[in-house]
Amino acid sequence: VRKSMVLLKNGKSMNKPLLPLDKNASKILVAGTHSDNLGYQCGGWTLEWQGLSGNSTIGTTILEAIKLVVSPSTKVVYKKNPDADYVKGQGFSYAIAVVGEPPYAEYFGDNLNLTIPLGGGDTIKNVCGSLKCLVILISGRPLVIKPYLPLVDAFVAAWLPGTEGQGVTDVIFGDYGFQGKLPRTWFKSV
């Protein structure tokens, strides 16, 4: 998991990186459909042919891994789909939005527009519009991210990390460096 993660953006400018994240932050918002869902982390061809949604196997979600790695005094707030009003004025140090695709295999995964499904785009807009934020994209292929890049402080492609959410937190909190590389540049449009 650690070796497969690809850092796509780190900081709104080269002089102000967001990663590695601060483990001692006072309050962190974790949002998105993929934050607390092992089935979405695993993808298709895992528990069943088309995969499953939910925590129906043994493992560590990204949300659980975040709670394990941050300071005991850090308050971790999970909100699956927060609206923009919820995000403002809550005193969050930063946010982590984990979005992506539902599990699929073969032709069931065909997608002609490659947009981020399941309200992921709205989650990014609502969270990253008001806070410093990291977006973690869980998918089996590149998706359209260009519209969101100006809002985002850091962007990571986590592909399908499976049951080991702690492999994701090992890298975003700086215990290990990013090693993953893209075989081709990320597309700007379909």
TrEMBL record:
It catalyses: Hydrolysis of terminal, non-reducing beta-D-glucosyl residues with release of beta-D-glucose. The keyword Magnesium does not apply. It is an enzyme of class 3 (hydrolase). One of its GO terms (biological process) is glucan catabolic process. Residues 5-189 form the Glycoside hydrolase family 3 C-terminal domain. Transmembrane segments: none annotated. This is beta-glucosidase. Its EC number is 3.2.1.21.
